[in-house]
Design a protein that fits this description.
four-stranded parallel sheet; TIM Barrel; about 150 residues; single chain; globular; alpha/beta
Length: about 150
């Protein structure tokens, strides 16, 4: 990871680090993510972007404060979906409300996963696939835009 960071610094590329706590992690996901990010900073690595899963509000605030303190140049945090159901994502998005450093989401499988499986199985035609993916994307956007309510 350090080599990659140094290469990004030399070449002018941006580094996005994604943290996915293991399913069998004894720590709560937010604690795991925060500890992992803190360790990355201890190693002298300062990502331009973080990609993290939904986690409790206190953990989001802790991570945002850590980033602000350790790497104010960081361009932002994006929320990872981990193939979660859309309504579950909507609930998870609420923890990110009002955190300026959080810029958006990257939740592809939540949007296209099930429709793509159905299409590959022959259960959907092309138009139905496009329609379901569009509906899912609209639903995710709606949850994101309404996360502060």
């Amino acid at each position: 990871m350090r080599e990659l960071y140094e290469a990004c610094c030399v070449t002018g590329h941006e580094l996005l680090l994604e943290i996915i706590p293991p399913a069998d992690d004894p720590l709560e996901p937010g604690e795991s993510v925060c500890r992992s990010a803190e360790r990355v900073y201890e190693l002298g690595i300062k990502p331009d972007w973080w990609k993290i899963p939904c986690m409790p509000r206190a953990s989001v605030q802790r991570l945002a404060a850590t980033v602000e303190q350790r790497a104010p140049h960081c361009k932002g945090i994006v929320v990872l979906g981990l193939d979660a159901p859309i309504d579950e994502l909507g609930e998870g998005f609420k923890a990110f409300a009002g955190i300026e450093r959080v810029k958006g989401f990257a939740v592809g499988r939540s949007i296209f996963g099930k429709p793509a499986q159905a299409w590959l199985a022959g259960a959907l035609n092309d138009d139905e696939l496009r329609s379901q993916v569009a509906q899912n994307y609209d639903a995710v956007i709606d949850h994101w835009q309404n996360r502060e309510r």
